[in-house]
Structures are given as structure tokens and as C-alpha cells.
Specification:
Elements: E1 2-8, H1 21-30, E2 33-39, H2 45-52, E3 58-63, H3 65-76, E4 84-88, H4 94-99, H5 105-113, E5 116-125, E6 128-129, E7 133-137, H6 142-145, H7 148-154, H8 156-167, E8 174-180, E9 183-189, E10 191-195, E11 199-200, E12 203-204, E13 217-222, H9 227-240, E14 248-253, E15 255-260, E16 269-270, E17 273-274, E18 281-294, H10 299-302
Parallel strand pairs: 1-2, 1-3, 3-4, 4-18
Antiparallel strand pairs: 5-6, 5-18, 7-10, 7-16, 8-9, 8-15, 10-13, 11-12, 13-14, 15-18, 16-17
Helix pairs in contact: 1-5, 2-3, 7-8
Length: about 300
């Protein structure tokens, strides 16, 4: 029998009830796994669990995007990496929806365990992995500044409320230099968005034709500070795509170096959580062939290659 560990966040979202864990355990066992459930007790606990457990055939993240981020991070600290899976029970669940999951945990367990193991690209920011998005600047602190109690009570609406408040605050420009594909550029930017996903902040198809195994991630810089200009730019991005939109600089790359002219008090956001690294220079690159078990539903759309061996 194969072995499985489920690491779950008891504080994620609305739908995870501890009383249902025996049911979930039985479902996983029916798919041929011996399984152990471990609840996280504090921030960073999921990363610690994965980095220290013995070898198992599968580790399932059951939580939000931040929980999955921790589990991927912990896996990167191992000498022998494990196959991972993610069953979403968080607030926005960008990664889970992108992978093809719905809101029913029992159905999601079946979709997961009848899925395929795929090789993903995982971006790194200063060697710290993130699963799907990292950002800095205007609006990008909302995910980690919004209180967990509000997320649990209001779900995605909590982010929208925080976004409206932030919208009316003064927008700051940050002076920086970035080097991409051997070309250096300097400028003033209100935010930076780096992603490997077609769903961001609850918006499906944020970018079109995104692949999770092409050794490329998407990079977006915004030069605008006026609120109406930012809204118009994002409207154009959604309507026509990111290329040739005034006020936006868009790239696809596998490596970028960003250097601010001075240290910033504001933190980067990675997969909805605060990045604790604070420095003037950030290098983002890809780590390839990270094995993830996921539903078959969206594989053809998200991948260029066939399933992992």
C-alpha cells in the first residue's frame, strides 16, 4: 500500500470541518493509500512538517494557496523531494481552481487521486519558491494585510473591501532597475506582478495561453500612479492582452533581476503571504520538473508536455 500524509490548515476558508476528516481519510484509503492527517498549528508549520517527515509516496496540502506555498517550500529543503498535491479549502483558491478543482472536498479528493503527476515550473525569488504569484507595490499587500478573521467571515469579499480602501490611498512610485534577457531598464513603477498562472486574485484567464512547464513566467510592471489610468490599463489588459498596453511593461522570461534604488519598508507578497526577505535586489528564476499530482481536467490547457514518468 502506498503512503500519504495530508497536511491541513484548520483555519483555512469556510468548508474544512474537522468532523469530516474520518470521511476524507476513508476516501483516500479507498484509493490505495495509508494516510495520516496532520493539522498545522502556526505559520510556517507546514513547511517544517514537509522538510522533516520521512519518505512517503504523496503529500497532500489541504488549505489555501499559502498552505500549499509552505508545503512546496518545505519540499525544496529536502534532499529527496516528494510528490505533492493540493486540495483547496482557502479563501480565493487561485491555484486550486487553475488546477481544475471545485468546492466539494470529497469530489476534489477523487479528482486528485485519479489525476496525473505533472512536472511544474516553480519560480524562485532569491531562492525562495512561490507557486504562482509574487508582487510588490500598489494593491499587492492586500492579501497579507487583510485580517484572517475577515477572510474567514467574508471570504473573497474581504479582499475586495480592502482593495477599495487601498484604491483611494496615494499611489507611490518606486525607482528601480531591472535586467531581463540581457537588457537593462530603469524607471518608476507603482507595482510589479510576477506570475506563473492563468488565474490571479480570483480572475480567470488573467493571461491567455499560460503554460506551467515552458520555463517561462509572466512579468508585469505598471508605470501609472493615477487611479483611473490604472483601471483603464487593467481593462485593456483583460480585453486585449498585456502587450502594447500604455502604462504596462510586459515580459515572458525565465530570469529577471530587480534592484531598487533604496531599501523598501513595504514587503513583497508571495502566494498571498508576506515575504520576510528584505533587500534591495531580487532575482527571480525557475526551478523545473517539480512533481505535482493534479486533476486531468485542465492538463491539456496548462501543459506543453505529457505526464511525468
Amino acid at each position: 500500500m502506498k503512503s500519504c500524509v495530508v497536511i491541513y490548515n484548520p483555519n483555512s476558508g469556510h468548508i474544512l470541518r474537522k468532523s469530516m476528516i474520518p470521511t476524507y481519510k476513508e476516501l483516500i484509503e479507498k484509493h490505495g493509500y495509508s494516510v495520516k492527517f496532520i493539522a498545522t498549528q502556526y505559520k510556517g508549520h507546514a513547511k517544517e512538517i514537509v522538510s522533516h517527515i520521512g519518505y512517503v509516496n504523496l503529500v497532500i496540502s489541504m488549505g489555501g494557496d499559502g498552505t500549499f506555498n509552505e508545503i512546496v517550500f518545505g519540499n525544496f529543503q529536502r534532499k529527496q523531494r516528494l510528490i505533492l498535491a493540493h486540495i483547496p479549502v482557502g479563501t480565493t483558491n487561485d491555484v486550486g481552481v487553475m488546477f481544475g478543482y471545485g468546492k466539494d472536498i470529497e469530489k476534489n479528493i477523487h479528482l486528485c487521486l485519479t489525476g496525473e503527476v505533472m512536472d511544474l515550473d516553480i519560480p524562485l525569488i532569491n531562492n525562495r519558491p512561490f507557486v504562482y504569484v509574487a508582487g510588490f507595490g500598489k494593491f499587492l499587500d492586500i492579501p497579507y494585510e487583510t485580517p484572517r478573521s475577515l477572510k474567514k467571515k467574508y471570504g473573497h469579499l474581504a479582499y475586495l473591501i480592502a482593495g477599495v480602501k487601498d484604491f483611494f490611498r496615494v499611489t507611490k512610485n518606486y525607482k528601480l532597475t531591472y535586467t531581463i534577457d540581457g537588457v537593462e531598464k530603469k524607471g518608476l513603477y507603482s507595482f510589479i506582478l510576477i506570475s506563473s498562472a492563468n488565474r490571479i486574485a480570483g480572475f480567470n484567464n488573467f493571461y491567455k495561453d499560460v503554460k506551467l512547464d515552458d520555463d517561462l513566467f509572466e512579468v508585469l510592471f505598471c508605470t501609472y500612479t493615477r487611479r483611473l489610468d490604472i483601471i483603464k490599463a487593467f481593462g485593456m489588459l483583460r480585453a486585449t492582452g498585456p502587450n502594447n498596453v500604455s502604462g504596462l511593461e510586459f515580459h515572458r522570461t525565465s530570469n529577471i533581476k530587480i534592484t531598487f534604488d533604496q531599501h523598501q519598508k513595504k514587503a513583497w507578497c508571495v502566494d498571498g503571504e508576506k515575504l520576510e526577505i528584505r533587500t534591495k535586489t531580487y532575482e527571480i528564476k525557475n526551478e523545473r520538473n517539480v512533481k505535482i499530482l493534479m486533476p486531468k481536467k485542465n492538463i491539456d490547457k496548462l501543459f506543453t508536455q505529457e505526464k511525468s514518468n
